[in-house]
Structure formats: C-alpha cells, structure tokens
Amino acid sequence: MLFSIHSSNFLRALTGAILALSLFAFSGCQTTSNAPTTEPSEAAASPTVLRVGVSANMPPFVFEQGGKLVGLEVDFARALADELGRNVRFVKMSWEDLIPSLRKGKIDIVMSGMNYNPERAAIISFSNPYVKSGQKAMVLQKNASKYPVAGFIVNAKIKVGAEKATTGSYLVRSSFPKAELKTYSSAQRGAEAVINGEIELFIHDAPTVYWMSGLYQNQGLTAALPVLTQDLMAWGINRDNVELLDAVNQVLVNWSADGTTDAILNRWVRL
C-alpha cells in the first residue's frame, strides 16, 4: 500500500482534499494579506508558535515578493496557525536542509511544496495530502512538439535539468536512462537555463512549471503536454510529534468539508 504511514488519515482525506492535476494552470493571483516576518533557524520551540520551514524559491508555493514571503503555502501556514491557536513563524532555509532541520527539532512543520514519497516517509511523518500534483517539463515552445507523450521525454538523449534534491531530480536519475542531468538551485534558474539553451527540458512540480512558463512566456517558455508522475503534496512533521500531526490532519479534514482548502488554492491556481 502506497501510504503505509498514517494510511487511514491519508485515505480519509483523499476524496475531499485532492484536486485533479489537470485543473492546475498559471493564474498570477496574489494574496493581499501581509506575510509574517521570518525568523532565524535556531528559533526555540514554543507551544504558542508554529515554526514553519520553507524554501522560498518555488512559486507559486513559497517565494519572495517585495521583501515579503508570499505564496500558496504561506497562506496555508497562516490559516493553519490560526486554527491551532498559534503564531506563525517562517524559517527560511535551502530545500535540502528542510528535512534535516525538521528531524533535529529546529522547525515544527515543512510547508514548502513537498511531495510524499516512501523515502521521505521513512524518516518523517506526512499530513493528509492537500492536493494531487505531478511532474512536468518546461521546454521552449519551438521544441514542444518533440514531446507529445511521456515516453518521448523519458527516453530522450538530451540535457535535462531539475532542482537539486527534489522529486524532479530523483525522477530524472531513476527513469531517464539516456539523459544528462544538470541540477539547479531553483526553478527560476532552471527556467533561465532552458531559455538560454543550457538544457532542453527542466522537470519540476506542475504548478511551478505552469507558473514559470507563464512568467517567461514572452521568451518562448512553455509547459510540455505530458504529465510524468502523479504526486501527493503534503506537509512534513517530525515523527515524534504525533500531537501536532493529529491536529493538522483534523484541520485538513475540516477544511475539506468547509471549502477552506479550495479557497486558498484558488488564490494561486486557476481551478
């Protein structure tokens, strides 16, 4: 069974909390609320504070705009902290430091566009999923017709980019036998690499691919048609913090019932 950890919680939320990948599209929407201030990574644990680990380079999930953190996960984190009766405190760090920091107790939860996978689930707990996503490829419009189906992407003998330590990079290493993988520090850097001809494709989560393709459409960037995987996006929580996991899952069940999940998603993606 795919969801071996807290599987009953996952299955209970699947119907109400997961949206189809095909509903995602670039929207350019932005929340009008003020983002909370970020704090140092050594912020002490407190029952009144929810320390949220983020990597602020993944629009539309988390990114910086005008000196503030904005995005889908920022709005979710604010709403979650409010539901739990805590103050939200964002802790910015690199993507690859999120899980180690969570395991060391430096943050309480990872809310940064993270996909569930068995390897991560072996060392951290995951909340109920809040949306269904998948990996897609950014490509120049002039090259898009070369990749009408997933097999053409997977078997291409080309340079393929992905963000370091993400699901996209794992996918290329494991399933693209002929590709030369190049890793980048952010989705924006990957998009620039496609535009500049350093790589032909850049693999990332579908919402991010749509966002970057919309941002750089005038420079010829687009999303290739095939969906390469089906992923569940969820929040990471320390395995020892069962109380927080249960509380977060209950909030997600409530949000599924009252429409809060859809309302927040609609601020950032067109449904």
SSE map:
Blueprint: H1 7-17, E1 49-54, E2 57-58, E3 62-65, E4 68-70, H2 72-84, E5 87-92, H3 98-103, E6 109-110, H4 118-121, E7 125-126, E8 131-133, E9 135-140, H5 150-154, E10 159-163, H6 167-175, E11 180-184, H7 187-195, E12 201-205, H8 206-215, E13 221-223, E14 231-233, E15 236-237, H9 242-258, H10 260-268
Parallel strand pairs: 1-5, 1-6, 10-11, 10-12
Antiparallel strand pairs: 2-3, 3-4, 6-15, 7-15, 8-14, 9-12, 9-13
Helix pairs in contact: 1-9
Give the structure's gist in a few sentences.
The protein is of the alpha/beta class. 34% of the residues lie in helices and 21% in strands.
Q: Please describe the biggest sheet, giving its number of strands, its sense, and whether it closes into a barrel.
A: 5 strands, mixed
Count of helical stretches = 10
* N/C terminus separation: 29 Å
Helix-strand sequence: HEEEEHEHEHEEEHEHEHEHEEEHH
Strand order of the largest sheet: 5-1-6-15-7
The percentage helix is: 25-40%
Structural class: alpha/beta
What value does the average pLDDT take?
A: 88
Low-confidence stretches: 1-41
Silhouette: globular
CATH architecture of the largest domain: 3-Layer(aba) Sandwich
Task: Please give the number of β-strands.
Answer: 15
CATH homologous superfamily caption of the largest domain:
Periplasmic binding protein-like II
- Rg over CA atoms: 18 Å
